[in-house]
Amino acid sequence: MSLFGNYNTPGRGVLKAPQEKKGIFKFFEVYGRHMWKLMELNLLYFVFCIPMTLMVILMLMTSNPIWLLLAIPSVLVGPATAAMTKVCRNYSQERNAFLLHDFWDSFKKNFKQGTIMGAIDIIFAIGFMVGIPMYKYWAEQNSMIYIPFVICISCLIVFYMMHFYIYLMISSTNLNMKQIIKNSFYLVSLGIKQSLWSLLASLIVIVMMYLFLPYSLFILPFWPLSFICFVTCFNCYPVIRKHVIQPYYDQRGESNPEFAYKNADPDEQLFEDRAAEETPVKTKESRKKGKTIS
């Protein structure tokens, strides 16, 4: 009998393919393994968010449009988001990832599309910041205005959920921006379960950060941004793989390199799995009676 378990049972020793837990158990196992690296990633990404954060805070405090000039450097949030998404995707799918190398490599490769998407995000963010309070004020005067107010809120939610897929496709595919935006809109509904879980996780984090202000500001540089991104990649990348990436390889008659370990060449394997040939190990039962202490 071993100290921590019985190792005499027949079956596999070292596994050729990863045997994963499922659902929330797998999530916390993978997240716990990369938690400290994700905190470093959050800090790196937060540097790019400083101009946009200042713009929002100063606009809310002063209502001075001069602070909109901070939107110019804020477009760099786009390439930075694509880079963070690439690292979180690798972590969530249990691939090899080198934080700084992968971040800067993805930042440079996706700079054009990331900057375009960053500019779109800034425009929409300013539009929602102006439109939602305006419609809310008008709705208090005229109840009919609640219709465009609700439409505006709905558009904000859908636009936010599209981001679960936009930056993943920027960092994982060779699609152009038109295809990425169109696909992200459809993927929200095709992966509605994953989209809603990611939305719920995001809302919980945002509400927690708001409720614990100003103390939550101290953890803002270290935790929430990369956590939300990791949750999104964990939930939504399989949807992209199923509906975007895998059909591409199926159409070309090629195998998806993500599943290369399942189709390994027997001649290149380092060991042979012969678990089925193993027989149970018979342990001898001791006939001696145990000593008693009187």
UniProtKB/TrEMBL annotation:
The chain crosses the membrane at residues 43-60, 66-85, 116-138, 144-170, 190-212, 218-240. It comes from the Bacteria. Residues 271-294 are annotated as: Disordered. Residues 271-284 have a biased composition (Basic and acidic residues). Residues 285-294 have a biased composition (Basic residues). Keywords: Membrane, Transmembrane, Transmembrane helix. InterPro entries: DUF624. This is DUF624 domain-containing protein.
